[in-house]
Structures are given as C-alpha cells and as structure tokens.
Amino acid sequence: MIQQRLLSLLSGSFLRFLLVGVFNTLVGLSASFAFFNVLHLNYWLSTFAGNTLGAIVSYTLNRTFTFRSKASVGSSWWKFAIVILSCYGLSYSCSLLLAEAAGVLWPELRADWLHNGAILVGNGLYTIGNYLGHKYFTFRANGPTSRGVS
C-alpha cells in the first residue's frame, strides 16, 4: 500500500515538475545570482532577468513534459505569464521584506548576504506558487471541474 502510494507520487506531475524545476533553477537562479553578483545589477533587475530566462525554459518543459498539456500555445502562454508574474511579484516582495526585517534584527549582516538570502527564499516561494498556479490554472486538464493531471 505505501509502496504503491510512493510510486504513484513519484510518477505524477509533481515529480516531473520537480525535475523540470531542478533544470529551471539551474538556469533562472544561477542567472539571478550572476546578474546580482557578477554584473552588479540591482535586486529587482537581477531576479526579473533570471526568472525571465527560467520562465522560457519552464513554459516549454512544463507544457510538454510535466503537465502534458494539449492546450494550444495561444490559450496557455498568457495564463502562464499571469502565474509567473504574480508568483514573481508576491514571492520576491515577501522575501525582500523578510530580508529587510532580518537586517533590522541583525544589523551586522551585510546587505549583499541579505539580498542573496532573499533571492534564495524568493525562489522557493516562487516554485511552490508556480506549481499550484500551473497545475490548477495554466495547464489544467479539461476545464474547471476536472481534477487535473495527477
């Protein structure tokens, strides 16, 4: 029973989403850190540019591999963009606020460490929000009454 449940979980869309996420994270998060630490772009430009690169990879792989969506590109790309932009704004705003609060509590922490931490926390929040948004909105199967892809 437990083995069957575990196999079901590992063969479902969440595992595929996590696998795509590993690759997507290598692209998007690495780019965000590079833009911030190497090119010295500000927090918002760095995270937006990195997430834009990651979003291109994410859309393609999640549409075809994770959710195996039959929805047309024309009907799904704008939903994808809404989810991505909403998750981006909420996740990275919250993580920056947390970093600023941490800076008040621990003023000895360097600002670049706080911003790097905010990038990492924001990415985690962004990942969870994206999975839920894409599963139940962007790539949901057969309309609002369907339970979607498992």
Helices and strands in order:
Elements: H1 2-11, H2 13-37, H3 43-66, H4 73-105, H5 111-138
Helix pairs in contact: 2-3, 2-5, 3-4, 4-5
Q: In short, what is this structure?
A:
The protein is 80% helix and 0% strand.
Describe the 3D structure:
The chain is mostly helical and 150 residues long. The chain is built from five helices and no strands. The protein has helices at residues 2-11, 13-37, 43-66, 73-105, 111-138. Helix 3 (43-66) packs across helix 4 (73-105). The chain is globular. The protein starts with a helix and ends in a 12-residue tail after the last helix.
What attributes characterize this protein structure?
80% helix, 5 helices, single chain, disordered C terminus, globular, 150 residues, mainly alpha, 0% strand
Q: Give helix % range.
A: over 70%
Distance between the termini: 18 Å
* Overall geometry: globular
Provide the β-strand percentage band. Answer: under 5%
Mean pLDDT: 87
Number of helices: 5
What structural category arises from helix and sheet content? Answer: mainly alpha
Secondary-structure element string: HHHHH
Largest sheet: none
What is the β-strand count?
0
The radius of gyration computed from the alpha-carbon positions, rounded to a whole number of angstroms, is: 17 Å
Sequence stretches where pLDDT stays below 50 over 5 or more residues: 144-150
